[in-house]
Amino acid sequence: MSMQTTTETVRSPDVLLRVEGLKMHFPVYRGVFRSRVGEIKAVDGITFDILRGETLGLVGESGCGKSTAGRTILQLYRPTAGSVYLDGEDLSTLHGEKLRQHRRKMQMIFQDPYASLDPRMTIGEIVGEPLDVHQTARGKGRRERIAHLLQVVGLNPLYAGRYPHEFSGGQRQRVGIARALALNPSFIVCDEPISALDVSIQAQVVNLLEDIQKEMGLTYLFIAHDLSMVRHISTRVAVMYLGKLMELSDRSEVYVDPLHPYTQSLLSAIPIPDPVLEERRKRIILTGDVPSPANPPSGCVFHTRCPYAEAICGETIPAWREIHSGHWVACHFAERFKK
To answer: How many C-beta atoms lie closer than 10 Å to residue 301's C-beta?
Structure first.
């Protein structure tokens, strides 16, 4: 699919979400008079689309801009530049009531189940709050809807009168999922929904998300740093570094034939459950620290840590290009790594 912005692309029946040149820069102020001295380039010009019913996994190191990208897509942060199309409608141009109506179609599951639930509200009040805000159900219909949502996520409807502190982390995250489902959205941003949970609970939550997706036809943007889990749940995988996309392709192809050195380094860190193979495999150890998004490197933002970098990498920003069908990469020398 061409990544050029066209009316046909945005309105394609297969494309639910289209992100075009999205930027989210946070201003930096200093001094008594709060003078603007720079900006944090948390998200710096990313372009991709998500098809209906699929899960796009977004991975990268902590601080690379994954969560900011998710919040900007949902317009929780208003983007500095770029466009976000949901069902062909540019969300970045909407305000007030028009944007509020579109919020019913998109929801978010937050990373921390302890911080994302109001401790002063009961579980029933938390799950029912979206229904109250958008005035979609009242009285008996509201109570029945809350009970149904709790059942869907595997919780007893009789728990509706209890408070968040009475539940475990996994149960709290199920409450967060139920809240996200309250308005029957078509698109959900899963912002590292399992990273704060015990390993024994993570698989249960991921399986629940997959079951709900099949049953309701949902589309996910699954943000995570656990590459093994992303491979399990995602249809395609996008790799992000310092506010920019490095690579995007089908999950199998990204893991078998990565074309960007950063993707290769991430995959080399995944442990192999075989002592012999683990001993023989080649690890790619990156040198130095991740540069500051307030002062990113010129050219390719990864060139300061890339083991294959050449002069052009520090001078010219690599184009976001399709190497072959569905496999996108931002690297001057991607063809070198093609198997």
So the answer is: 26
Distance CA 317, CA 12 (A): 30
Q: CA dist 95 to 83, 87, 100, 129, 331, Å?
A: 14, 17, 8, 22, 37
Nearest to 19 by CA among 42, 43, 40, 41: 43
- Among the listed residues 257, 202, 258, the one whose alpha carbon sits nearest the alpha carbon of residue 232: 202
d(CA 157, CA 301): 50
Q: Where are the alpha helices (DSSP H) in 291-336?
A: 311-315
Single-letter amino acid code for the residue at 8: E
pLDDT, residue 91, reads 95
- Phi/psi of residue 137, nearest 5 degrees: -155, 145
Strand partners, 90: 85
Q: How far apart are the first and last CA of the chain?
A: 22
- Above pLDDT 70, what percent of the chain? 95
Nearest to 309 by CA among 294, 299, 320: 299
pTM above 0.85, yes or no: yes
* pLDDT score of 278 more than 70: no
Is the pLDDT at 3 greater than 60? The verdict is no
Q: What is the pLDDT of residue 13?
A: 66
Nearest to 47 by CA among 66, 74, 75, 23: 23
**pLDDT of the residue at 5:** 44
Residue 270: name the closest of 257, 258, 281, 259 by CA: 281
| pLDDT tens, position by position, 14-53 | 999 999 999 999 999 988 888 888 999 999 999 999 999 9
